């Protein structure tokens, strides 16, 4: 009632003043010295899918990507800045609804961010590309001007666990952002040098010999890698008006990569047998990407997006093993065109139609041999979303996917269904879904170029692999308050596995074969606020996978995973500390062996903000703690005629530290920050973003 009375008072005063002036402009007008307007403000709550970015959150995180830690469903790795949502990395990123790369997300000024949302009902264009979730960064409308950032990422091993290279990584970058009412421009230049050295123990058995490598250690590694890389990126969005936006993206990424592995072998009795295995590879690559997009809204209920792009990759490769050198060139020419249309004119419904066309041209040249692989892919899809209430959402769709290549011409249908429920108070949520996603072989899996990987093994791709396979994904999540249970099942009857065989000349060949893959991961996660400064996050679960085909018996492996993170944040000093204990090593079954990925790690993260947010620092220390954690990462092969086991000593990460620094210069429009300690009404879902709603 106070609001209504105040508004009536203001309108009455304005109307009376206007009428009085019309009667007699020369008459004396009384001036009202003070008008006090009272209103009620609503405190917005963060939910499981939307994060309201406050100054506290801005000072708590290093960049927009690390802000995703605030979501219970998100797992953020501070070392490599990788994101997983409910255990999957099938994630796309957007800024104000426009697709962007994760690098562009990291370059956003945190002061420009209004909110972050995770979209699990992604549009059809993303679904047919295997994207499960979209992270959309929402910017403030009144944040304009230039931002210049100088950043550096440093990795050091001061205790000698990286061999002679104390500095394992140095990655300085310079980026510029410009934002106005019409333009959004992001330009970045990055240089990176990486000198990673690994102690890898090898056991090999072939030709009636059993050989073990010397005991290499973190201080005496035998696998040396060097990578020099540049990345130049520019992205620009131009708003013609509120309904029309043009976007442009370009990337040039040249790099050089060198790897050298040396093994001195002894026999099974420990005697030196004088066999030296010296393997070296050298790669030079140029990667160019260009894309253009246009989004428009018309007839009130229609929206249209049109996108087109090119990707060129050129690679020069050299491999040398046991005195045999192979030199070959590879290239990829990739182009795409995409169209997406949405209609929202039906009450509680949204319809979506679209199509994509992709052309892929691979070429491999080696000596007098030239192999070419050309494929055309197209996709036509239709999706419908039905919201009978604020709590329920049903999404169904069907895509028709075709592929034309020299080896295969086929067309199949890929259905999708997702069901979501959120209780009115948002304490209970669940979603279930089925997605059928196309998978395609990689260039190295198809390339017929040959090179030796050790003294006896020759690598050669298989151009007869299935040109396109279907990955069936079933997922379900149930969340109650801060507890969530997520399970996911994946099945691909034509996945790709390493395959060792002897050719007609008796040579040992490493190639690839299609195989049936099955996996299931189930994770129970929990988040608890211990106090105003302390928070605990924990998760426990398991990963199971298996593989088989007509020529091999089924192999399966189950591994338990888990993590616990204790967070501390001092808002007054803009200082945060996180202690993480993680068991994240997983096993992937192959037709003739097992390959482990990920690692177990215990690390400490410290972050501080200075100069009102202009200077940010993040320090990560890999603690030399291995209680209950695995110290080895294995890769095993058993092909009968050839057996090998390679073990990476994960203690090479002990005492490493990772340092990120970022300094920002802003010039442009600044917004006032109001400090308000008033008591607000709690926000409800129905009244969100409404002022004075009762």
UniProtKB/TrEMBL annotation:
Residues 1-21 form the signal peptide. The keyword Signal applies. It comes from the Bacteria. The lineage of its organism: Bacteria, Pseudomonadati, Bacteroidota, Bacteroidia, Bacteroidales. Keywords: Signal. This is Outer membrane protein beta-barrel domain-containing protein.
């Amino acid at each position: 009632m106070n609001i209504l009375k105040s508004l009536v008072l203001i309108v009455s005063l304005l109307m009376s003043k206007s009428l009085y002036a019309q009667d007699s402009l020369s008459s004396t007008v009384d001036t009202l010295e003070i008008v006090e307007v009272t209103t009620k403000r609503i405190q917005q709550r963060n939910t499981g899918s939307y994060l309201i970015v406050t100054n506290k959150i801005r000072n708590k995180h290093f960049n927009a990507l690390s802000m995703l830690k605030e979501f219970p469903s998100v797992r953020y790795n501070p070392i490599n800045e990788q994101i997983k949502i409910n255990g999957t990395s099938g994630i796309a990123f957007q800024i104000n609804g426009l697709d962007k790369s994760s690098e562009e997300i990291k370059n956003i000024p945190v002061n420009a961010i209004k909110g972050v949302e995770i979209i699990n009902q992604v549009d059809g264009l993303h679904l047919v590309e295997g994207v499960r979730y979209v992270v959309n960064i929402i910017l403030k409308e009144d944040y304009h001007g230039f931002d210049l950032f100088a950043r550096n990422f440093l990795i050091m091993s001061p205790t000698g666990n990286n061999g002679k290279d104390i500095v394992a990584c140095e990655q300085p970058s310079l980026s510029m952002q410009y934002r106005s009412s019409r333009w959004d421009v992001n330009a970045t230049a990055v240089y990176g040098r990486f000198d990673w050295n690994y102690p890898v123990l090898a056991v090999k058995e072939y030709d009636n010999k059993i050989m073990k490598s010397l005991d290499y250690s973190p201080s005496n590694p035998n696998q040396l890698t060097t990578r020099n890389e540049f990345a130049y990126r520019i992205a620009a969005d131009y708003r013609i008006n509120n309904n029309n936006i043009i976007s442009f993206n370009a990337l040039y990424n040249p790099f050089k990569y060198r790897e050298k592995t040396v093994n001195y072998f002894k026999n099974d009795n420990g005697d030196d047998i004088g066999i030296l295995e010296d393997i070296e590879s050298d790669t030079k690559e140029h990667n160019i990407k260009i894309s253009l997009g246009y989004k428009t809204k018309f007839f009130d209920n229609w929206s249209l997006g049109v996108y087109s792009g090119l990707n060129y990759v050129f690679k020069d490769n050299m491999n040398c093993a046991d005195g045999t050198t192979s030199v070959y060139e590879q290239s990829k020419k990739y182009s795409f065109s995409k169209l997406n249309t949405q209609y929202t004119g039906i009450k509680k419904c949204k319809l979506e139609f679209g199509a994509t066309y992709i052309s892929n041209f691979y070429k491999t040249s080696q000596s007098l041999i030239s192999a070419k692989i050309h494929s055309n892919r197209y996709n036509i899809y239709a999706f419908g979303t039905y919201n009978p209430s604020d709590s329920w959402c049903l999404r169904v769709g069907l895509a028709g996917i075709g592929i034309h290549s020299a080896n295969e011409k086929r067309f199949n249908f890929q259905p999708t269904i997702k069901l979501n429920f959120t209780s009115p108070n948002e304490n209970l949520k669940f979603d279930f879904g089925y997605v059928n996603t196309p998978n395609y072989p990689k260039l190295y899996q198809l390339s017929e170029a040959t090179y030796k990987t050790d003294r006896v093994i020759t690598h050669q791709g298989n151009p007869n692999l299935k040109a396109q396979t279907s990955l069936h994904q079933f997922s379900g999540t149930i969340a109650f308050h801060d507890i969530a249970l997520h399970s996911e099942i994946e099945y691909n009857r034509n996945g790709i596995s390493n395959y060792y065989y002897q050719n007609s000349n008796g040579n040992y060949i490493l190639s690839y074969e299609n195989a049936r893959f099955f996996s299931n991961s189930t994770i129970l996660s929990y988040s608890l606020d211990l106090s105003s400064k302390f928070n605990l996050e924990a998760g426990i679960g398991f990963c199971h996978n298996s593989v088989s085909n007509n020529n091999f018996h089924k192999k399966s492996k189950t591994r338990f995973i888990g993590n616990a993170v204790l967070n501390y944040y001092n808002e007054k000093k803009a200082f945060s500390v996180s202690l993480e204990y993680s068991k994240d090593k997983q096993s992937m079954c192959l037709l003739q062996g097992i390959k482990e990925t990920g690692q177990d790690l215990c690390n400490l993260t410290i972050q501080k903000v200075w100069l009102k947010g202009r200077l940010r620092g993040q320090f990560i220390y890999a603690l030399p703690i291995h209680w209950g954690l695995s110290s080895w990462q294995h890769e095993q092969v058993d092909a009968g005629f050839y057996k090998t086991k390679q073990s990476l000593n994960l203690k090479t990460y002990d005492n490493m530290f990772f340092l990120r620094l970022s300094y920002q210069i802003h010039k442009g429009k600044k917004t006032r920050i109001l400090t308000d300690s008033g008591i607000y009404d709690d926000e409800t879902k129905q009244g969100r973003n409404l002022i004075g709603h009762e």
